[in-house]
């Protein structure tokens, strides 16, 4: 009997993870093949798995575990957890790991974030391409090839308490002043991790949407979209809280709102944490991606650190963290990376640093982060562009020599002058160009934004 035609999983396997609609693109049969392919690619004898609160997550995670065990790997299933909880387990147990989540995507989606032992990411260039190729081949064939070793075991283990203890061991919050904190979990995994981490802290928590519900009945679990933090902002003002925190669906990102209910930019949070950490580790390297505010490298240098600029994306940040031995890294998207957390991103540890910084002095949060809000910014603006390279070339030519600006192509096109910069970069998955502009004043931002968009959208 001849093999069936090859299966194309390119729509499901992304640059950094696996993500698609259940069951149309991702089902338990395919998850089982991905589990087998993960073990085959990593050569692991033991792995760890976890999953979020989506209705499809337990079944997909179990199927993956069965596929992995079928290739001879012992599987530790930690069950419900945040993505940074899975990274913790991978680092603590020194095992490759797989997390079942689609982060902030709607309920019909699910996916898999994978890492090697020590939470080292698996992306297209570090194993994901091979995992996809194996899954495609096995989907088209008549089963998996035989192996010589015996099937592995499946063991359940609760690591939530260990995760909380590890984070609390990295930040001293024992001497802070009393704080009232509103936490919006968005019906995501922050509803599980926040009580475990905050339980013994000298803070009053006002919980919002802590019920684990992968249908997201209250709002999307994506705090990057301003409409999804409106409830949090209102609750902070209504209760007179000192700050608000919002986690995304898998709780690896954390957004901050000050006592006035105003959003604190992730760049300001990055600068605050960098300044705090550099106090105890002078001379250390701090990573920032190229569309974080220029305030971040400014603050890092002012505190005796060395800023290192990277491309956008967690795989690039983590690779640069490992290469440079960096202490900390931050992105505009509210991903925060810590050397003491296996270079992985954890929104909860970032939240603890903000709480410690605020509670360790008497000023309100708006005053505390004020020195880190130095520039005006456009925010990210997306435009549909099919001939991206030609458009980038036209923009580069239009700005050649302007204000003694310098252009580079580390990630898309960046043009930098003394008082402003702009970045225009292609999306990895859609025919989009993403524009970010920052300058000393809002008028300059508006002028540059409009000039670039006139070219991009012509």
Automatic annotation (TrEMBL):
Provide the Alpha-D-phosphohexomutase C-terminal domain boundaries: 380-453
Q: Boundaries of each Alpha-D-phosphohexomutase alpha/beta/alpha domain copy?
A: 13-138, 162-261, 268-375
Alphabetized, the UniProt keywords read:
Isomerase, Magnesium, Metal-binding, Phosphoprotein
Q: Which Pfam families would you find in this protein's record?
A: PGM_PMM_I, PGM_PMM_II, PGM_PMM_III, PGM_PMM_IV
Which cofactors is this protein said to need? Mg(2+)
UniProt xrefs under InterPro entries: A-D-PHexomutase_a/b/a-I, A-D-PHexomutase_a/b/a-I/II/III, A-D-PHexomutase_a/b/a-II, A-D-PHexomutase_a/b/a-III, A-D-PHexomutase_C, A-D-PHexomutase_C_sf, Alpha-D-phosphohexomutase_SF
Tell me what this protein is called: Phosphomannomutase/phosphoglucomutase
- The source organism is Streptomyces dengpaensis
């Amino acid at each position: 009997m001849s093999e069936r035609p090859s299966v194309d999983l390119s729509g499901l396997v992304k640059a950094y993870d696996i993500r698609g609609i259940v069951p149309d693109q991702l089902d338990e049969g395919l998850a089982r093949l991905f589990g087998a392919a993960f073990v085959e690619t990593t050569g692991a004898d033991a792995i760890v798995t976890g999953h979020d609160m989506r209705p499809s997550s337990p079944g997909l995670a179990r199927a993956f575990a069965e596929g992995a065990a079928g290739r001879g790997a012992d599987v530790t299933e930690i069950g419900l957890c945040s993505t940074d909880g899975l990274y913790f387990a991978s680092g603590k147990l020194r095992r490759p790991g797989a997390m079942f989540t689609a982060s902030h995507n709607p309920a019909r989606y699910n996916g898999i974030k994978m890492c090697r032992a020590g939470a080292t990411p698996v992306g297209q260039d570090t194993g994901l391409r091979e995992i996809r190729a194996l899954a495609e081949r096995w989907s088209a064939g008549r089963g998996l090839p035989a192996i010589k070793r015996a099937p592995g075991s499946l063991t359940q283990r609760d690591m939530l308490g260990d995760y909380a203890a590890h984070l609390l061991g990295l930040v001293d919050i024992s001497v802070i002043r009393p704080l009232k904190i509103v936490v919006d979990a968005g019906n995501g995994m922050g509803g599980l991790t926040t009580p475990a981490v905050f339980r013994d802290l000298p803070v009053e928590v006002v919980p919002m949407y802590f019920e684990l519900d992968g249908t997201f009945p209250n709002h999307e679990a994506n705090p990057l979209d301003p409409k999804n933090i409106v409830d949090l902002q209102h609750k902070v003002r209504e209760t007179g809280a000192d700050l608000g925190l919002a986690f995304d669906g898998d709780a690896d990102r954390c957004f901050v709102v000050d006592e006035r209910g105003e959003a604190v930019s992730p760049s300001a949070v990055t600068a605050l944490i960098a300044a705090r950490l550099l106090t105890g580790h002078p001379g250390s390297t701090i990573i920032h991606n190229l569309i974080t505010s220029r305030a971040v490298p400014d603050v890092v240098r002012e505190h005796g650190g060395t800023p290192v600029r990277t491309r956008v994306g967690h795989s690039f940040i983590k690779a640069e963290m490992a290469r440079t031995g960096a202490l900390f890294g931050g992105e505009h998207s509210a991903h925060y990376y810590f050397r003491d957390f296996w270079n992985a991103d954890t929104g909860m540890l970032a939240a603890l640093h903000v709480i410690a910084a605020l509670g360790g002095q008497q000023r309100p949060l708006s005053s505390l982060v004020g020195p880190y809000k130095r520039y005006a910014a456009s925010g990210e603006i997306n435009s549909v562009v099919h001939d991206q390279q030609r458009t980038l070339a036209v923009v580069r030519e239009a700005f050649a020599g302007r204000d003694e600006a310098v252009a580079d192509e580390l990630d898309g096109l960046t043009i930098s002058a003394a008082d402003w910069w702009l970045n225009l970069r292609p999306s990895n998955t859609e025919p989009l160009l993403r524009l970010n502009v920052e300058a000393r004043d809002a008028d300059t931002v508006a002028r540059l934004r409009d000039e670039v968009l006139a070219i991009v959208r012509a």
